[in-house]
Amino acid sequence: HDKLVAGFRRTSEKLGGNIASLLTKERLDRATLDEIEEALIASDLGPATASRVRERLEEERYERDMDAAGVRAVVADEIARILAPVAKPLEIEAFPRPQVILVIGVNGSGKTTTIAKLAHLFQEQDYQVMLVAGDTFRAAAIGQLKTWAERINVPIITGKEGGDAASLVWEGVKRGTEIGTDVLIVDTAGRLQNKAGLMDELAKIRRVLGRLNPAAPHDVLLVLDATTGQNALSQIEVFGKETGVTGLVMTKLDGTARGGVLVAAAERFGLPIHAIGVGETLDDLRPFDPREVAALIAG
Ligand code: GDP
């Protein structure tokens, strides 16, 4: 919990500071409402969230007195409403097993770390986990995932650099089924020669999986780096359309002032947000309580 609070501190300080500096007049007038709306957009909450908050303030407090705490309470309430329907932990429920989770996202977003954290989480829930090092484009990615697998003691399927990721996934499902794996987590490339190449590769992996089990992949998780702010939203747009993203994990919410992008993503896309990353260690992947996170962001 402390880490969560510390994680959102920079976001809430920025937002809270902005709001406090705007409320210099005795009554909430139109100019102040405009400024509050702009401050919310500048905090990465997105135009739709900002305008919802503005409408609420206008209905409830227009031409009446208002302090920063009052504004923040309305902000927290609106954020909680937006986050409530999307905050959904990832459930292991596929039958037959294994449940196949395809993890996608651009390099540097925290994909490898998130896979390790998820594997650790499922292990703690007594599931048998297996990893597939499907980012065959980067030798470093294979090595990094292998190191994590050894650390948390889960089996991993690896191939050669430049090898065919789809065949590796095929092998993963075969082996996973043989040894009774509950969850198969598949890493994928975050970048190939070009975007079309990357999308083709993901499509090919999906086709191969579908031949083994029409329900697979059961989950297509897009990992997003919160520190990239609005860029994270364009990634949902690009990957979402082409790869059938079923849910999001947002990482690096610790120590960024751009935590508001979590809300913008929820508001704009409505995709489940399965967990948030608030640090580099295995225990730093958290399911989240919408009310708690809303209160933390609003300060
Ligand atoms: P990938 O290229 O997408 O596989 O990204 P990595 O998993 O290698 O992560 C890139 C960097 O971000 C590494 O230094 C990670 O330790 C770090 N990282 C990943 N998730 C988080 C997080 O939630 N918080 C922080 N502070 N760092 C993270």
Automatic annotation (TrEMBL):
Q: Which UniProt keywords apply?
A: Cell membrane, Cytoplasm, GTP-binding, Hydrolase, Membrane, Nucleotide-binding, Receptor
Residue ranges occupied by any SRP54-type proteins GTP-binding domain in the UniProt entry: 98-299
Q: Which positions fall inside the AAA+ ATPase domain?
A: 97-280
**What is the native source organism of this protein?**
Sphingomonas morindae
Q: Which SUPFAM superfamilies match?
A: Domain of the SRP/SRP receptor G-proteins, P-loop containing nucleoside triphosphate hydrolases
Q: How does it sit in the membrane?
A: Peripheral membrane protein
* Family the entry assigns: Belongs to the GTP-binding SRP family. FtsY subfamily.
For GTP, which residues are the binding ones?
Answer: 105-112, 187-191, 251-254
Family matches, as SMART domains: AAA (SM00382), SRP54 (SM00962), SRP54_N (SM00963)
Pfam families xrefs: SRP54, SRP54_N
NCBIfam families from the xrefs?
ftsY (TIGR00064)
In this chain the Signal recognition particle SRP54 helical bundle domain maps to 4-83
Which protein, by its recorded name, is this?
A: Signal recognition particle receptor FtsY
InterPro entries the UniProt entry points to: AAA+_ATPase (IPR003593), P-loop_NTPase (IPR027417), Signal_recog_particl_SRP54_hlx (IPR013822), SR_rcpt_FtsY (IPR004390), SRP/SRP_N (IPR036225), SRP54_GTPase_dom (IPR000897), SRP54_N_sf (IPR042101)
State the function annotated in the UniProt record.
Involved in targeting and insertion of nascent membrane proteins into the cytoplasmic membrane. Acts as a receptor for the complex formed by the signal recognition particle (SRP) and the ribosome-nascent chain (RNC). Interaction with SRP-RNC leads to the transfer of the RNC complex to the Sec translocase for insertion into the membrane, the hydrolysis of GTP by both Ffh and FtsY, and the dissociation of the SRP-FtsY complex into the individual components.
What Enzyme Commission number(s) apply to this enzyme?
A: 3.6.5.4
Locations listed in the record? Cell inner membrane; Cell membrane; Cytoplasm
Subunit structure, as described in the record: Part of the signal recognition particle protein translocation system, which is composed of SRP and FtsY. SRP is a ribonucleoprotein composed of Ffh and a 4.5S RNA molecule.
| Catalytic function, reaction form | GTP + H2O = GDP + phosphate + H(+)
